[in-house]
TrEMBL record:
Protein name per UniProt: FAD-dependent oxidoreductase
Record Pfam families: DAO, FAO_M, GCV_T, GCV_T_C
InterPro entries named in the record: FAD-dep_OxRdtase (IPR006076), FAD/NAD-bd_sf (IPR036188), FAO_M (IPR032503), GcvT/YgfZ/DmdA (IPR028896), GcvT/YgfZ_C (IPR029043), GcvT_C (IPR013977), GCVT_N (IPR006222), TrmE/GcvT-like (IPR027266)
Segments forming domain FAD dependent oxidoreductase central: 426-477
Keyword Oxidoreductase: yes
Organism of derivation: Pseudaminobacter soli
Family membership: Belongs to the GcvT family.
Ranges of residues in domain Aminomethyltransferase C-terminal: 779-863
Molecular function as annotated in GO: oxidoreductase activity
Source domain of life: Bacteria
Stretches assigned to the GCVT N-terminal domain: 482-757
Keywords assigned: Oxidoreductase
Regions crossing the membrane: none
Claim: Oxidoreductase is one of the keywords in the record: yes
């Protein structure tokens, strides 16, 4: 067919695959594709020349990897090569079958996370040299990648990405439309504002990479089996002791679920939730195009939702539509058929026409070129667009690598590397929180919800990434008892792990809705008013979404002393801010521990950390001890009463003595408010006098009403999470997941005071902290401000010291009391970062690719007079 037709009823060929798969079909029988389920085309199986796979299943293996796509083969390769592990890989079809073989093969490296960018850079480095080890080419070609911008918002996004690239040590350039035309002569550039150019990006052959990894795994001793289907697991409690297959049982110590679009079904056999959903993804392969260079850069045209890459003189072209097509058999979120191997869906040019129209507008020559093949196959996508790695919270010896959102080829090499490290050592080798399976919760077992949210994430794959943008699907899902009350106060809600949380409150006359932009957004002034209310009067925050646990038992105190970096086994009535560290000394958890009885502790952590922190604590409880960890999140609502007038309000609603002598900072008391017993924690995250009031969930509304009524003479108002962010930046409080992560130890983060190194007490991470304390620190967290109030700091802006890059911001925002933009970031120097080094530098921040003069701060920008936080 000719693309100008852009219709599915025009006759077109279906028998020619792109180069990466064409070699698989050269010796097929001359016949029509066999019929398959669900209207699919079934491609006959290829004949391959390679060493035969192992044939007899062993009765035992140290590690069983399930899935022979690129992730499974990469994981097996790294387990065998780097760790000399006894590895068996099981593939129900053939190596590369499923979704790997029909992937488009574009390889980009830049992501918003430094760790994930490192993972992708590792993939490229591996693909460049893998053939030297295995003798099998990967098809790697460093063409570079052009990303096109046709709007000012997109151009601002690219300018920020260029700054991120510099922060992460990647080469990225911003180029003019004329330069784009020179690099890609067939392109219409008349609507471009500009483009970004990443010269080290490229493309590769997914099947060839996977076969090379499989051969490498065999070279290093891994045993790979095809045509073996996993049918279940033998369990001892929550642990897997053996893998059941249609050809026998394999006893094992660990399982790695790399089942691709089947990973959810495989996980379910062990009670593990893997929240992904298959989506139909289409692209075409054209005939040869005159004038197309063999080394033409790959193209991502996000404003037109399309991508291109050169292949054998023609183009591969696909896109991410706003109305994606889900794939599931039977009921909503049904199963993927086991026998789906080298199969495709029927061509759907009606649905694909939206991409054809945009592609022809961008590359007019496409209108006259023939189509060799349409590839319409399923890809696994996730509810937040990030892939899934790590130890399953429900099963401590199952690890997962799945849900790669159509960039599994770009991620495959690095994902296999970090997953192998994780499986072997029991900890992630770097900060992988954005892809950690423990970022999910019980909510993600709802397959209908996962489907709806995943389709929204797919539809946003190429939309402009506005700061602070919220997902809209599947809401509201979880609400606190105050939801309707806060709506009457004109709350604008965000969502975190399913919970509706008030981000800000719109004043009368203003539409209570976010208006996204690349500059100051519509909530900037209202949040400033909320900020001022907390600094000057009193505010109340609904933080009921906090994750809350209770650890009880006669050995609870000793267990927490082993797990926590700070001394938490204090007398009853005391609470402690603490980190929990990994063996590298990195910060895995950041939470508050209150001792409410001799044998009971109340633990409070962030909403998003709920699954992760619970599982981490549970897995590190000493075996055989008398301890019981229970999640009580839904049993308590949480109201944070904060501000210099908060004691006046609290005194008016309780008979308890809440004076500083009777109720000092860092203590917990049970008090009564509005007829309800409330667990009151004297702690703050905003830098003001205040309490967290943990209320039996049914009484949350009564307590809120009482506080609002008593607070009216003191100017009380409900306040939101955007104000919390501004307030904590001024006070210098760290945020886990940005300022403090598993990559950072407390000494580097300025939290050495919260580590009990002065006590003769062992705890996880102690040795790493002692080692760090015994030598100069290579990085330290610092605050930065700019004098220009219009500068928007978001995080990942490059920090320059005397003109040289020394780090990047981990978080950013605006301090309304200080009247300045504020950011935190680590200053790095291999020879050590001491006070003199920090003080002697001249600093700038690169913001959206422009330098801005900055001032460094090692102390909080805001410190209340008279120390009223602890008064």
């Amino acid at each position: 067919m000719r693309l100008a037709a852009a219709r599915g009823d025009v006759e077109h060929g279906v028998g020619t695959l792109p180069r990466r798969a064409r070699h698989r079909l050269r010796r097929l029988h001359a016949r029509e594709p066999a019929p398959a389920r669900n209207g699919a085309r079934c491609l006959p199986l290829p004949i391959r020349k390679r060493p035969p796979m192992s044939q007899t299943l062993p009765s035992h293996a140290e590690i069983v990897v399930i899935g022979g796509g690129i992730i499974g083969c990469s994981t097996a390769y790294h387990l065998a090569r780097d760790h000399k592990a006894d590895v068996v890989l099981l593939e129900q079809g053939q190596i590369t079958s499923g979704s790997t073989w029909h992937a488009a093969g574009l390889i980009g490296q830049l992501r918003s996370s430094a760790s994930i960018t490192r993972v992708l850079k590792y993939s490229v480095d591996l693909y460049k040299r893998l053939h030297e080890e295995t003798g099998l080419e990967t098809g790697w070609k460093m063409t570079g990648c052009l990303r096109l911008a046709t709007t000012e918002d997109r151009w601002t996004e690219f300018r920020r990405l260029a700054t991120t690239a510099r922060s992460f040590g990647m080469e990225m350039h911003l180029v003019s439309p004329d330069e784009v035309k020179r690099m890609w002569p067939l392109m219409d550039t008349s609507d471009l504002v500009g483009a970004s150019w990443l010269p080290t990006d490229g493309q590769a052959s997914p099947s060839d990479i996977t076969q090379s990894l499989a051969k490498g795994a065999r070279i290093h001793g891994a045993r790979l089996f095809e045509k073996v289907r996993v049918t279940g697991f033998v369990m001892d409690g929550s642990r897997i002791t053996a893998v059941e297959t249609d050809q026998g049982r394999i006893a094992c110590e660990k399982v790695v679920n790399c089942g691709g679009q089947w990973a959810r079904q495989i996980g379910a056999k062990a009670g593990v939730s893997v929240p992904l959903h298959p989506v139909k993804h289409q692209y075409i392969v054209t005939e040869t195009m005159k004038g197309l260079s063999s080394d033409a850069p790959t193209i991502r045209d996000p404003d037109r939702r399309t991508y291109f890459k050169e292949e054998v003189g023609g183009l591969v072209m696909g896109g991410y539509e706003p109305n994606p097509q889900s794939w599931a058999t039977g009921l909503v979120g049904g199963d993927v058929p086991d026998e789906w191997e080298f199969q495709l869906f029927d061509d759907d040019y009606d649905h694909f026409e939206q991409h054809l129209t945009q592609a022809i507008a961008r590359v007019p020559a496409l209108a006259e070129v023939g189509v060799k093949q349409m590839i319409n196959g399923p890809e696994s996508f996730t509810p937040d667009g990030n892939f899934i790695l790590g130890r399953a919270p429900e099963c401590p010896n199952m690890f997962v690598g799945a849900g790669f959102n159509a960039f599994g080829i770009a991620s495959g090499g690095g994902a296999g590397w970090v997953l192998a490290e994780w499986v072997t050592r029991g900890e992630a080798p770097l900060d992988l929180w954005v892809v950690d399976i423990r970022r999910f919760s019980g909510l993600h077992r709802d397959r209908a919800w996962v489907k709806e949210r995943t389709l929204e994430a797919y539809g946003k794959h190429y939309t402009v990434a506005f700061p602070h943008e919220e997902y809209e699907s599947g809401r509201p899902r979880i609400v606190s008892p105050l939801y309707e009350r806060l709506k009457k106060h004109r709350a604008v809600f965000g969502s975190k792990l399913g919970w509706e949380r008030p981000n800000w409150f719109a004043p009368q006359g203003m539409v209570p809705k976010d208006a996204y932009s690349m500059g100051r957004q519509n909530w900037f002034e209202p949040v400033g008013d909320e900020h001022a209310a907390v600094r000057e009067k009193v505010g109340v925050f609904d933080q009921s979404s906090f994750a809350k646990y209770e650890l009880a038992g006669s050995d609870a105190a000793a267990a927490l002393e082993l797990i926590c970096a700070n001394h938490v086994a204090k007398p009853v009535g005391r609470l402690t801010y603490t980190q929990i560290l990994n063996t590298r000394g990195g910060i895995e958890c950041d939470l508050t521990v209150a001792r409410v009885a001799e044998d009971r502790f109340y633990i409070v952590t962030g909403t998003g950390s709920r699954t992760h922190d619970f599982a981490w604590i549970e897995e590190h409880l000493p075996a055989g001890g008398d301890t019981r960890l229970v999640d009580v999140t839904e049993e308590f609502g949480t109201l944070s009463l904060m501000g210099p007038r908060s004691r006046d309000v609290l005194t008016a609603v309780t008979n308890a003595d809440v004076g500083n002598e009777a109720f000092p900072f860092g203590h917990v008391r049970e008090i009564e408010i509005a007829g309800h017993k409330v667990r009151a924690l004297r702690v703050t995250y905003v830098g003001e006098l205040g309490w967290e009031l943990h209320v039996p969930i049914a009484g949350t509304g009564d307590v809120f009403d009482a506080l609002m009524e008593a607070g009216r003479p003191h100017g009380i108002r409900p306040t939101g999470y955007r104000a919390i962010e501004s307030l904590r930046l001024e006070k210098g409080y760290r945020a886990w997941g940005s300022d403090i992560t598993p990559n950072d130890n407390p000494l580097e983060a300025g939290l050495g005071w919260a580590v009990k190194l002065g006590r003769d007490t062992g705890f996880i991470g102690r040795e790493a902290c002692l080692a760090a304390a015994g030598k100069p620190l290579a990085k330290r967290l610092a605050g930065f401000t700019t004098s220009n109030p219009d500068v928007v700091l978001l995080g990942r802006e490059t920090i320059l010291r005397n003109g040289e890059p020394v780090g990047y911001l981990t978080s950013g925002g605006f301090g309304y009391t200080a009247s300045k933009p504020i950011g935190f970031g680590y200053v790095r120097n291999a020879d050590g970062v001491d006070d003199a080094f920090l003080a002697s530098g001249h600093y700038e921040l690169i913001v959206a690719n422009d330098p801005v003069a900055a001032t460094i701060h090692m102390e909080p920008l805001y410190d209340p007079k008279g120390d009223r936080v602890k008064a």
